[in-house]
Amino acid sequence: MTQPSTRTRAAPAPGNAKAASHAKLVIDFDRYIPTVLSSFVARLRASSNVFFLQRYGVSLAQWRILSFLAEHQPASAYDIWTRASLDKAVVSREAGALARKGLVKIEQVKGDARNRSEIRLSKAGTELLDRSLSEILRRHDNLTAGLDAKSVETFLRVIRHLEDRIPHMGDQSDLPYSSHAPVKRIRRGAQGAG
Fold first, then answer.
1. What confidence tens digit (pLDDT) does each residue in 105-145 have?
2. What does the DSSP 8-state code read for residue 167?
3. How many Cβ atoms are within 10 Å of 94's Cβ, its own excluded?
4. CA angle, 141 then 156 then 95, to 5°
5. 92 vs 62: CA distance, rounded Å
6. Which of 44, 111, 120, 128 has the smallest CB count inside 10 Å?
7. What are phi and psi of 3, to 5 degrees?
8. What DSSP string runs through 21-67?
9. Contacts of the segment 78-84: beta carbons below 8 A, 24+ positions apart
């Protein structure tokens, strides 16, 4: 459980008073973390979808389901969407598509009062994962090229920290904004031009 932030915040330097009177503070979306991460994830997802469809005939979501099953099978659709952080409708749709492709087997749990199904990898699904492993690791290495192991671990630690901070984004504070607040100044005459 994360605790509310206790860090102190420093107000941004006001700069030249005359210049500040002709400038307006706006969000700097090149430094606003939610936008930066959303843009990164969208580009990564688009690249991965093209790769998986062209090389293996599956979508990124389908590959994630197969990968989850490799570690946790048999699994229910509920297990997959809650533990693999995938949308419920996506799991339902893509599991059906994987079954039609012969990459998974979906079977009713015998004697289950809730009529649950279990999903398992088929032989073809296991073979697809085995074939793709080396290429997936190469793509990851290509993505992180230029970063050492310590930098990658720092990035993962920062992502976990930010994820823990999400529930606190709406917390109220009387402290001034941090010195690294994602703002920039624009000239007042610049907005609404055109």
1. 998 877 766 777 899 999 999 999 999 999 999 999 999 99
2. G
3. 24
4. 75
5. 11
6. 111
7. -100, 150
8. HTEEEEE-TTT-HHHHHHHHHHHHHHHHHHHHHHHHS--HHHHHHHH
9. 80/119
